[in-house]
Write a structure and sequence with these properties.
This protein has about 210 residues and is of the alpha/beta class. It contains seven helices and seven strands; from the N terminus they run E-H-E-H-H-E-E-E-H-E-H-H-E-H.
């Protein structure tokens, strides 16, 4: 359905805090295009405003069902056809989707990044290049503690508990198997510039 369409879509997946967002940001700057939008799967978490705050905190955010896959698929397919979308905005502190949206107009390239960027075949087939970023889980945990305690109002104990209860099992069940669908596997511990160069080289061979 999406094969051969423009713009060129690049999917970047991998475990939590492997460096996907940084890689996507640096890649967007390096691509030969004026404006390369980045679609983060984090924006597509389901709205939990109908639950009380305790129930929201107990939700499993590390399984594919936590995301609005239907809306994500609709938006990725629209972008692959060259259409604009109204991307949702998600608040990780309250676990709710805001009323406002952000207009995204595709350029020559679009980058899609997130835990499950390679999970759904209906989305994966839209990519010209599928990338998986590898990083040992102990390093992922250290990075996640640093991020969530500073940016998402979490305590270290809660981050560690969630990591063992849902993050690690989700990686083993959903993310690690999808690694086999990647065209390119990168080391999340390597300098980001080297990873960007590897993607650009692969793109040149893949799409010209």
């Amino acid at each position: 359905m999406c094969q051969g369409s423009k713009p060129v879509l690049i999917g970047i997946a991998g475990p939590s805090c492997a460096g996907k967002t940084l890689l996507a940001t640096r890649l967007a700057r390096a691509l030969p295009a004026d404006d390369t939008p980045i679609i983060s799967l984090d924006a597509y978490y389901r709205d939990l405003s109908h639950l009380d705050i305790e129930e929201r905190a107990r939700a499993d955010f590390d399984a594919p069902d936590a995301l609005d896959a239907a809306l994500l698929r609709e938006h990725i397919h629209a972008l692959a056809r060259g259409g604009a979308i109204n991307r949702p905005v998600y608040n990780f502190t309250t676990h709710t989707r805001l009323r406002r949206t952000e207009r995204v107009v595709p350029g020559a390239f679009v980058i899609i990044e997130g835990l499950f960027a390679l999970y759904w075949e209906s989305i994966r087939k839209c990519y010209a290049l599928a990338v998986h970023v590898d990083l040992p889980l102990d390093l992922c945990l250290a990075r996640r503690i640093h991020r969530d305690t500073r940016e998402r109002g979490r305590t270290e104990a809660s981050v560690r508990r969630q990591f063992e209860q849902t993050v690690r099992p989700a990686y083993e069940r959903f993310i690690a198997p999808a690694r086999n669908q990647a065209h390119l596997i990168l080391d999340g511990h390597a300098p980001v510039e080297a990873s960007v160069s590897a993607i650009l080289h692969h793109l040149k061979r893949q799409v010209g």
